[in-house]
Design brief:
13 strands, D-Maltodextrin-Binding Protein, domain 2, elongated, 297 residues, five-stranded mixed β-sheet, 20% strand, alpha/beta, Arc Repressor Mutant, subunit A
Length: 297
């Protein structure tokens, strides 16, 4: 076998159908082919691989051990191609929007709103890719070109074409059993405080409201994202800062509660709508942007 590449991917499709139906004739019916054509393509695949894939009987065929080992790989590969094609291209009458959003927003606030948007617009489907750092939103990778972006940062982080979207409000959250042990801000010295290093608003901004608290006694643990911080808090490992409204659904899903002895504070950063390349948004992407904007009014 001089070339390891299979010359015809249709051979794999024919092989899978024959294995699933245990018959070349039934596979031919399913594929709208003749039985001799099925047999010929199976033989070509076997010759290429250098192994028999089927034991031929008078009325049916059965996989050899080599064929049985090969079948799951082929089925997985064919299914992957089909599902990826459906996700990327859909039907002829179906429009697709690729939305890139900050991970927290994509995991918590966005899903329900996207479901509602698609229900109102049955001819449109929204694919979501995530980003975390500013670099993620400035570097567009081939095959992942978004139609619309929702980034997070300060107004100076983005181009002049960026449009303000969601603000954020910070809340202290933890498991209920940990919250029950905190009566004053000083009680937080007994716990880990998860801080998202990329955000400009955090524990220091909150705890400076309590002059008697010595920040040097606090156990700050740096993490790279709010979903990670909330996940650690959900495991009872410490306290985190929720960022409403983006994190509301995640807080509820993880069983976290707000620690009411601490005030809510406004973050100094926010979410922005971004147009990749700075040009006008595609028609359907503009429609999605309008819908999401109306969802916070």
């Amino acid at each position: 076998m001089s070339d390891t590449r299979i010359p015809s991917l249709n051979w794999l499709r024919v092989f899978e159908a024959a294995a699933r139906n245990e018959s070349f004739a039934r596979a031919a019916e399913r594929l709208n082919m003749s039985a001799p054509a099925v047999s010929q393509q199976i033989r070509a695949l076997e010759d290429h691989l250098g192994r028999k894939l089927f034991e031929r009987g008078a009325r049916d065929v059965r996989l050899t051990p080599a064929g049985a080992a090969f079948l799951p790989v082929v089925q997985h590969s064919l299914a992957s191609v089909e599902t990826t094609a459906a996700a990327l291209f859909g039907g002829q009458s179906q429009a697709r929007i690729t939305l890139q959003a900050v991970t927290l927003l994509a995991m918590s606030w966005l899903p329900a709103h996207l479901v509602a948007f698609e229900a109102e617009n049955p001819g449109i489907r929204v694919n979501v890719i995530t980003g975390e750092s500013l670099a993620d939103f400035r570097t567009i990778l081939p095959g992942r070109e978004p139609d619309l972006q929702i980034g997070f940062g300060s107004v100076t982080d983005f181009a002049d074409t960026a449009e303000p979207f969601l603000n954020e409000t910070l809340h202290v959250v933890a498991r209920p059993e940990l919250i029950a042990q905190v009566k004053t801000a000083a009680d937080l010295t007994k716990f880990s405080l998860f801080e998202v290093e990329a955000h400009r608003s955090g524990w220091h901004q909150l705890l400076t409201l309590f002059p008697d608290v010595d920040l040097r006694l606090m156990d700050f643990r740096m993490v790279d994202s709010t979903p990670f911080a909330l996940s650690l808090a959900a495991q009872g490992l410490g306290f985190a800062l929720a960022r409403a409204p983006a994190s509301d659904q995640m807080v509820a899903a993880l069983g976290l509660e707000y620690c009411q002895i601490f005030p809510q504070i406004s973050g100094v950063q926010r979410y922005f709508f971004l147009s990749p390349g700075g040009g006008a948004l595609p028609r359907h992407a503009a429609k999605l942007k309008t819908y999401l904007t109306s969802a916070i009014v």
